[in-house]
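The following record pairs a protein chain with its ligand, iron/sulfur cluster.
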Amino acid sequence: MIKVLLVNTPDDKKPVNRDMAGGLGFDRSKTTVLPPMDLLNYATFLEQKGYSVVLFDSQVESPAQEQIERIANQFKPNVTILTASLPSVDNDISFAKWLKGILPFSSQIIFKIGTRFRPIVEKILRSSGCTYCIIGECDLVIDQILTGHTMEGTARLLNDEYHEQQETLLKDISQLPIPNRKLLNNDAYRYPALGDKTTTMQTSRGCSFSCSYYCPYPLVQGKTWRAMNASRVVSEIETIIRENKIENILFRDATFTLDKKRTQEICHLIIEKSLSFSWWCETRIDCLGIDLIDIMKKAGCVGMNIGVETGDEALLAERAKQGVTLSKIIQLTQHCKKVDIKLRVLLMMGLPGETKQTLYKTFKLVEQVRPDYIGLTTVTPYPGTPFYEDALKNHWIKTFDINTFGGHGYNTQIDPLTSEDLKFAMDKIHMAYRFGLEDSATTKAGKDKLQKEFLEWVELQ
Ligand code: SF4
């Protein structure tokens, strides 16, 4: 029997969620700890195919390295699958080298990484000691990859030359087996807005919207939105509640409500089956409506992450979120407040076309919407996106240090703004958000002062 050890690589030097940003990796706060779903999908499928599997998530075990050494010595895996991502790649390579040193000579190390960007994948192949990298969507062929029956979705060195083979994307992701969450220490995962013992589900892949200009999801998962049908989604929810005894679910789909009809069906089934749990999802304003929000609330939705990016109408239309208007943002966020659905507004600073004035409009939008949570990021030139190509052509990339590609690095410089400008604006926008959480006389004075400072800065051209 082939023994497979699946390890979410330790990230104690630089906390990162490798599943996020479509699999390219995203800086994480220590308070958000989400299960490594890519590895869990592999482990579940391999187990069903008769493999012996051990899944180890370094995020939730301490000291991780010592425990991995012990497992490696006792379990003696034939293959170890490690996770890697852009912002953690140097750390991931160092870990693989260490692991290679303690595993038997014949034991293989394989990396799972979201990017297909050759310089990074080749760096891993040449310097980590791994046999090959999984760079594609291989959930239902992982067994054939391990036995060498296919090279689909992998990159490797053959006679010292780089080779990669494209995979066929799964058309119907309802075929994916329900992940065996018993392989995880479920008590250890948490999402601050939902609380302890939270698990994640991914019920769709890909995204067809034009913000693929900068977004990693269409890049990694494709521009065609592929979704599980409602009954497959609800079967997994039932398993989570009944077998895993988990009552908080974070849907990790990039645009959970892209198909409003499917979302309604999911909600109706949840209500019909009296499934009691709290859930949170991520979506866009133009994929929502008053009726949909109401049924989502009835089905247990307690909050949403809403991609807004900017408070400037022109920038929204040109670059950030075509089809989303400020009036729609205001109308639907107000309705969410009315029915007590919490909101995390996601904003991105520094897109081409961003100016001090557009940043001020974002600041004003935050004041007006008063979100419950806020997610502030800087635009990142993910290799493979049209934004990356433009950034190369226009010499916008200030640093190619891949460790800064975690969603919060200041790695581009696009006139007329400097990194200091972006830092200033992000700081003030964050303060506006903090003030929005409270309502007092002190807050009023603080808000006025903040507004004055921001306006003075905008006028300083
Ligand atoms: S809607 Fe969201 S996931 Fe889709 S391309 Fe735009 S930013 Fe990315």
